[in-house]
Design goal:
Length: about 170
């Protein structure tokens, strides 16, 4: 059940990034969609990470591949979030009817803090060969922290606009 739910999460991630790409194209007439491709890459890397979960292959190459997949997931997710946040920030005046601008600032602060933590954690994982228990604790707590970005997206959109779209 756990892996199945994670695979569903991968689909939701794709839909999230695609919805933002479509929104920027339709509402802002912006063709800047680099964040979408990094978001798509993060969903693909998460898919492979979930696929490899539970596989205990005693092979050095496989262990390196698993570390690379999780590292590329982290880097592509952070890049996608950073690029999207920059686009939101640049267009905050055009988005005033749709978004709570203070949440855009909160997302910007969040991505700066999580980026600093991420580079520290990646350096830690590269330098030290931590036990698998510590690896898992870091990994899942990190995933939980990344979910706050998506929660901020939920908070960012004005709810009355969603309930009554004819009011714009």
């Amino acid at each position: 059940i756990f892996k199945s739910l994670l695979f569903i999460s991968v689909m939701f991630m794709y839909l999230y990034w695609k919805a933002y790409k479509d929104f920027f194209f339709k509402i802002l007439n912006s063709k800047e969609t680099t964040f979408f491709y990094f978001g798509l890459a993060s969903a693909i890397f998460l898919f492979f990470h979930v696929l490899f979960l539970g596989m205990e292959i005693d092979n050095k190459s496989f262990k390196i591949l698993r570390k690379l997949v999780i590292t590329f997931f982290i880097l592509s997710e952070l890049t996608a979030q950073f690029l999207l946040t920059i686009q939101l920030y640049k267009n905050k005046d055009n988005l005033i009817a749709y978004c709570n601008n203070y949440i855009i600032y909160l997302k910007l602060l969040f991505i700066i803090i999580i980026s600093m933590i991420s580079f520290f954690v990646i350096a830690l994982l590269v330098i030290y060969d931590l036990s698998s228990k510590v690896d898992y604790i870091l990994e899942w707590n990190y995933f939980a922290a990344l979910l706050f970005y998506y929660f901020f997206s939920y908070l960012m959109w004005k709810k009355d606009l969603i309930r009554n779209p004819s009011s714009t």
